[in-house]
Amino acid sequence: MTLRKRRRTAMMILLAGVVLALLGTDTGWIWLTVPGMTLLLGGLALDAAWVRCPRCGRWLGWNTGARCPACGTEISWD
Ligand SMILES: [Zn+2]
């Protein structure tokens, strides 16, 4: 899987979690809030585990540039 796909998958899970958590908070349905928060954290954890520099292993964070901010290695997103 490419880095771009990993990032997209993690972000979709995170966003689904945000939507569920907000819906749950809005309606007072705790059974929506709890899995929503779990998905949100899971999405973040997946992103931190998947979207890493191939050379130094640093999490690329919200940087989507062509180079790793830590070691300067060129990142291939595709
Ligand atoms: Zn690096």
Itemize the secondary structure elements and their pairings.
Elements lengths: L2 H25 L2 H21 L28
The structure holds zinc ion.
Q: Give the low-confidence spans.
A: none
Q: Label the structural class.
A: mainly alpha
- The geometry reads as elongated
Determine the oligomeric state from the structure. Answer: single chain
- Work out the radius of gyration: 15 Å
Compute the average pLDDT: 95
Main sheet makeup = none
Helix content: 55-70%
The number of E-state strands comes to 0
Please explain how this structure is put together.
The chain is 59% helix and 0% strand. With 78 residues, it is mainly alpha-helical. The N and C termini lie close together (9 Å). It has a domain at 3-50. The chain has 2 helices and no strands. Helix 1 runs antiparallel to helix 2. The mean pLDDT is 95. It has helices spanning 3-27, 30-50. It binds zinc ion. Residues 53, 55-56, 58, 68, 70-71, 73 line the site of zinc ion.
Defining key terms:
78 residues
Short description, anyone?
The chain is an all-alpha fold and 78 residues long.
